[in-house]
TrEMBL record:
TM regions (residue ranges): none
Database matches in InterPro entries: Homeodomain-like_sf, HTH-type_TetR-like_transc_reg, HTH_TetR, KstR2_TetR_C, Tet_transcr_reg_TetR-rel_C_sf
Protein name per UniProt: TetR/AcrR family transcriptional regulator
Statement: the UniProt record of this protein carries the keyword DNA-binding: yes
Alphabetical UniProt keywords: DNA-binding, Transcription, Transcription regulation
Matching Pfam families: TetR_C_24, TetR_N
Lineage: Bacteria, Bacillati, Actinomycetota, Actinomycetes, Pseudonocardiales
Domain HTH tetR-type intervals: 7-67
Length: 229
């Protein structure tokens, strides 16, 4: 029971820190405010996490492990390249609505994954996700689903449209997440050369791809964390 309590407290600390990063940015988040909100000492936070950099790294790592697990589950359900790309777009928009704090915390601080010390594991997970997307784009080109092009550049276009959503998207605003995802997916698939009917079917917020995304996200999957030697 004691171990479970400690684990729950640790998760509570990380969750509060994540929300502060989402609301204020990494530079505006600090141990003092987290400790005050949770009614604990800063020493308790240091005991669990060590440094603020380490906390951010864990936020990023947990986020990317979950996204990788979901992507692999979607690929198992959707064999076609167009459907896989549409599914990742639908999932990407859903994250902003379903997990706003963790998603915004990741998106607004993703630049810290470029070369910041201590972010090696999170960076590797992000690169693995990117490689999945690039692989689908290349597969689609190879089987004639997509017109020829630079898969890496296309992946950046896709990520760019999703990763900046935190600056403008309001899940309770004019457009529902499904409608935003459908528009994004349709525009992307058209640009990749997918036939109009197939692109609309894949992008449809009430279609089979969106249903697959609903099913996978409902499972609340995650990749196992590495164990210490």
């Amino acid at each position: 029971m004691a171990g479970h309590a400690r684990g729950g407290r640790r998760s509570e600390i990380l969750g509060t820190f994540t929300r502060h990063v989402a609301e204020r940015g990494y530079d505006g988040a600090n141990f003092s405010d987290v400790a005050a909100e949770l009614g604990m000492s800063k020493g308790t936070i240091v005991h669990h996490f060590g440094t603020k950099d380490r906390m951010l790294a864990e936020v990023q790592e947990r986020y990317m492990r979950t996204r990788l697990a979901e992507a692999n589950a979607l690929f198992a359900r959707l064999p076609g390249a167009a459907e896989r790309i549409a599914a990742l777009v639908h999932a990407g928009v859903r994250y902003s609505a379903d997990e706003p704090a963790t998603t915004v915390a990741f998106q607004r601080e993703v630049v810290r994954l470029v070369d910041r010390p201590g972010m090696e594991s999170a960076r590797a997970l992000r690169d693995a996700y990117r490689d999945l997307v690039v692989g689908v784009l290349r597969d689609g080109e190879a089987d004639g689903t997509f017109v020829p092009g630079d898969a890496r550049l296309r992946s950046l276009q896709m990520f760019g449209s999703l990763h900046w959503m935190w600056t403008w998207f309001d899940p309770d605003g004019r457009l529902e997440p499904g409608a935003v995802a459908a528009e994004f997916a349709l525009t992307l698939l058209r640009g990749l050369g997918v036939a109009e009917t197939a692109a609309r079917d894949a992008a449809d917020p009430a279609g089979a791809v969106a249903a697959a995304v609903d099913g996978v996200l409902a499972l609340r999957l995650t990749e196992p964390e590495p164990t210490s030697a």
